[in-house]
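Weekend entry, working from home. Most of the wet-lab plans are on hold until the incubator is repaired, so I used the time to fold the two sequences that have been sitting in the queue since the last round of cloning. Logging both here for the record. First:
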Amino acid sequence: MKRLAALLTALLLGAGSAESWCVAVWYPSSDHAGGSAALEDNLDVIDIVYPFWFTPTGDGRILSQAGSSWQERTARWQEGGALVLPSVFSTLSGFLKEPEVSSHLAELLELAEENGFDGLDIDYEMFPLSTLEPFADFIERLADGLHARGLLLSVTVHAKTHDTDAPESARAQDWRRLAAAADIFNLMTYDWTNRTEPPGPVAPVSWVSEVVGYALSKAEPEKIFVGVPFYGYSWQRGRPPATTTNWEAAERMVSSFDLEPERDADSGELLIDLDVRGLARQTITMSDATTLEARLQALPRDLGGVAVWGLGGEDPLNWHVLREQRPASCDAERFRQ
């Protein structure tokens, strides 16, 4: 009955039925202490967890930031029905040459296989354009190794709408080759306005739609996961740099000072202006459940799903929206090649 209801919801939204639609989350993806509880309280709707635990050194060795209880957490999430693909994060690219790259590949495969993970998520960012071919080669080799072991590969990429004048780090990612090798292709569709810029929306719907449209020209739709921000930014006196904030803090401010937020027409994000005597003026952009609902309704229903960044302090109604708006349950077996 739940699957039927989800499919009917998709039809009412004017889209075709989806065979599978999944919710992935990165953890931890904020400093808020409530991130762990948010994950474990919502495992009925969270299908994939990307623990942000590992990073390579400049020569490709893997360093762990997982802490002391990561095995127990992994087992608990898997017992709750989620796939666990640790996110390996790096902004260093020096290991994409021999012999370092072969050693790095061997360490990644050992990490995934010996610790009972379901695969890996590769989140390598800010690489120079000179790594375009070496990075694609590396991902293809990693995919072959993981698939030979029955494991999955997720690749997380910078958002872009084309390759002609996108930032160098985005142009350094060959979406066609990366998506062909990967089982899951995560688009970081957030920070259209980043903390170093004047106030603006984090993820305008029109921009996200352009990014998704470009991805659809490079990748199979069922592999594409659209990044969804659960966080916001606060600018002191309307000037950068901004600081990351969350719905909980913004809602407390609105209630304490009886503020009346506006809503950005494109992104659907709340616009909060704190102008109270005796306090520094703040400008805040924030996502809530209404924002999320509009974002989900704007997405093609045959995509793979969404990937959430910013667990902890989010609008608790976000999880209700995800349960109600997903057009189908997640079929994890379809990822396996």
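Second, folded right after the first finished:
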Amino acid sequence: MRFGVSTMRFAKAAALLVALASSIYAYNDHDGFYFTPIMAGFITIITGLLAVAYWRDALLRIISGTVFLCSLNNLYDELFGNPYKFENNEKIFAFFIAVFLFLNLFLLIRQMSNGTPDNTAQ
């Protein structure tokens, strides 16, 4: 087990602690008004960490990146928009998701046509 100092490792640990604290606060909030925005923030942090963790794998990057963009849309909707209406922010996020999917699917298809790369040489 390695206990060295790493900025990325510290950032991931801090994000997980913020996610844990926000979920505990949201579940213990007696008012209940802030539960949904806080939980949207929690989900965005967790899916963002998954996207970072799976970024090297092309297929997992497509899935985790799409889920992260969808959670960003949910967070934006809860904080600034109206989650009960289909507005322009959903169209903008749908555009970004389509571009993200197109670029990553293109890279995945190109990678598959060239053969699977050797991930051991890093």
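Plan for Monday: verify the second prediction. The chain is about 75% helix and 0% strand.
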